[in-house]
């Protein structure tokens, strides 16, 4: 799958670099979350792609590190902003000490593979976040899968798994997070026509 994202990285950036201009719901959510991060505390964007979401937060003073398993996507993140820090990493195994981050941002990167795998991912985020740290995520909501063999005219092999918002929240809670916000919105006209689920969750204050 990383190969697929490498293959379309330049075109993905062109398509999504300014997407937040057309997404008022997402901007309001990110504005709220940005106010929750302590000034200067590092925030990791996982599965960042070209990191347009991280760029929005950086413009609001949040020091976001862009990370992705696809080096091609990180190259595009640097094309958008050569000054941003980047990190090649799998979102389920972060090369960071315990409590390193005040926040984790994960837009449309928790939509691959079986839902059961997300428990391990949230356990890893619990480790990497400081107590009271905030995780914010967006996924396609619903049931079933959508398979793509072509994207932007190039061959890919990507299967998106729609997520059940209740199950997502339950997995966060069973891995030491309190769910603060959970919203499902219908798609905007120019988006892929799936409902979108956004969750904001706080890592428990205890270290266990
Ligand atoms: C649909 S794109 C989303 C990019 C961006 N966050 C956005 O909202 O447009 C999914 C991204 O997640 C990355 N990704 C998928 N699985 C990953 C994993 N296990 N670890 C890190 N990155 C991953 C892909 O390389 C790709 O850049």
Topology (SSEs and partners):
Layout: H1 2-7, H2 9-16, H3 24-36, E1 43-45, H4 52-58, E2 64-68, H5 71-80, E3 86-88, E4 101-107, H6 117-128, E5 129-141, E6 145-151, E7 154-161, H7 165-173, E8 177-185, E9 195-203
Parallel strand pairs: 1-2, 1-4, 2-3, 4-5
Antiparallel strand pairs: 5-9, 6-7, 8-9
Helix pairs in contact: 2-5
Bound molecules: S-adenosylmethionine.
What are its keywords?
single chain, 208 residues, alpha/beta, Rossmann fold, seven-stranded mixed β-sheet, 7 helices, binds S-adenosylmethionine
Description:
The protein is 31% helix and 31% strand. It is an alpha/beta fold and 208 residues long. The chain has a single domain, classed as Rossmann fold, CATH 3.40.50.150. The strands form 2 sheets. Strands 3-2-1-4-5-9-8 form a 7-stranded mixed β-sheet, with helices on both faces. A two-stranded antiparallel sheet has the order 6-7. A hairpin with a 2-residue loop joins β6 and β7. The chain is globular and about 50 Å long. The termini are far apart. The mean pLDDT is 96. The chain binds S-adenosylmethionine (SAM). S-adenosylmethionine binds at residues 2, 5, 16, 46-49, 53, 68-70, 73, 90-92, 107-109, 112. The site of S-adenosylmethionine (SAM) has 19 residues, from α1.
CATH fold annotation: Rossmann fold
Mean pLDDT: 96
By helix and strand content, what is the structural category? alpha/beta
Number of domains: 1
Strand content: 25-35%
* First-residue to last-residue Cα separation: 33 Å
- State the CATH class: Alpha Beta
CATH superfamily: Vaccinia Virus protein VP39
CATH architectural category:
3-Layer(aba) Sandwich
Q: Which ligands, by name, code or SMILES, are bound?
A: S-adenosylmethionine
Radius of gyration: 16 Å
What is the spatial order of strands in the main beta sheet? 3-2-1-4-5-9-8
């Amino acid at each position: 799958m990383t190969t697929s994202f490498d293959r379309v990285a330049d075109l993905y950036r062109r398509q999504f670099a300014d997407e937040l201009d057309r997404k008022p719901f997402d901007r309001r959510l990110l504005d709220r979350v940005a106010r929750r991060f302590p000034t200067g505390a590092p925030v990791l964007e996982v599965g960042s792609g070209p990191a347009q979401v991280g760029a929005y937060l950086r413009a609001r003073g949040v020091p976001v590190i862009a990370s992705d398993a696809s080096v091609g996507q990180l190259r595009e993140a640097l094309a958008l902003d050569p000054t941003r820090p980047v990190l090649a990493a799998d979102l389920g195994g972060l090369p960071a000490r315990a409590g390193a981050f005040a926040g984790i941002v994960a837009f449309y990167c928790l939509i691959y593979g079986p839902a059961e795998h997300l428990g391990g991912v949230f356990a890893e985020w619990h480790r990497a976040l400081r107590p009271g740290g905030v995780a914010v995520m967006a996924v396609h909501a619903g049931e079933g899968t959508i398979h793509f063999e072509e994207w932007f005219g190039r061959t890919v092999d990507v299967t998106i798994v729609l997520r059940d918002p209740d199950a997502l929240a339950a997995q966060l809670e069973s891995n030491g997070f309190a769910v603060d916000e959970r919203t499902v919105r219908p798609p905007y006209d120019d988006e892929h026509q799936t409902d979108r689920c956004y969750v904001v969750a706080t890592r428990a204050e205890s270290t266990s």
